[in-house]
TrEMBL record:
Keywords: Hydrolase, Protease, Signal, Thiol protease
Entry GO MF terms: cysteine-type peptidase activity
Domain SH3b: 48-111, 122-184
Protein name in the entry: C40 family peptidase
UniProt cross-references to Pfam families, sorted A to Z: NLPC_P60, SH3_3
Residues covered by the NlpC/P60 domain: 266-389
Biological process according to GO: proteolysis
Keyword Protease found: yes
Amino acid sequence: MIIKKMRLSMAVVTLAGTVLATTPVAAAGDNSASDNSKAQSESKYENKAVADVRSNTTLNIRKEGSLDSEIVGKMKKGNIATVVEKGSEWTKVKSGDVTGYVKNDYLVFDNDIEEYAKDNVKQVAKVNTETLRVREKATTDSDIIDLVGEGDTYTVNNQNDEWVKVSVDGETGYLSKDYTELDYSFGNAKSMAEIRAEQKAKEEAAAAQAAADNTSSSAASSTSSSASTASSSTSSRRRTSSSTSRSTAASSSSSYSSSSSTTSGSATGSSIASYARQFVGNPYRYGGTSLTNGADCSGFVMSVYAHFGYSLNRTSSAQASNGVAVSTSNLQPGDLLFYGSGGGINHVAIYIGGGQVVHASNSAPYPKGGIKISSAFYRTPVCARRIVR
């Protein structure tokens, strides 16, 4: 830490050559840096309010300043809002897409926010250099377990004077403080519509996972009877007339044509998902775009879509502007799911249906890392985009 020395001028009062008092006086402008820092901290949270509730509860945002009024959204502990109008009992706030009234008793205002955040709000580290090494331990002599890019944001699990401990897609590592900017991850309120959509998506993902597990268990039991079934089917096929076979073939062809014409849009998304799945088990490589020799999360997505003639942006945060926005409760195979922390995006995956995604996760060997399949909600998605329409 560099400590700037204060230039001092000595105010000296003498009487008949005798020093009566010597007082150190700061030269003009010497306190400006300190004053500016304090002013910046205060202005940063001017007209802001943070929810102060227990971790397992939420703060209701109401349409009007009354307990009888409709609930239009909710704030979690540490969520931040802009103060629209402060009253003696209720304050009108705007947080995320929600505007409404909150009881003053459960809000921390303005200059008190900084002190409150130190003990109640998680910090995030934002990478401010082009490429930063993630170390296994908090020392430059430690092994490099991953690389992260400029703008990537990660929740701080712990820290000392020189390093921050973070999780990068399941891998715990350390980032040098010299190349990160620390801030608080306040988060925003969610509307009731957003809350319902997220709950529905989680329920559907859980149901899809349960169905997949059930299919896997029933497959084993059905295998034991396959021999007798095959024998019976062979005998039956021998008794089937050729005319019936021709009729069945014609019917099947007609059915297939009808199905193809009505589901061509979703089939395109499904074909992208199927294509992406075949690379499961291949390695992760930061900055890579090779589906076989190594790709990072956005490189994997970009290369998969390039195979089908789509040109996407290179980074995950930039890809979040490709295509059109869709709700996470209305996902289709081929959609992109984005993840992040502290308001930033640092990961992207391809939705493959059944509540699952395929993605280039991290540099650990497969199946812990590499290109693999995970639950779509292994982390809470920030947003979703649809490329194929």
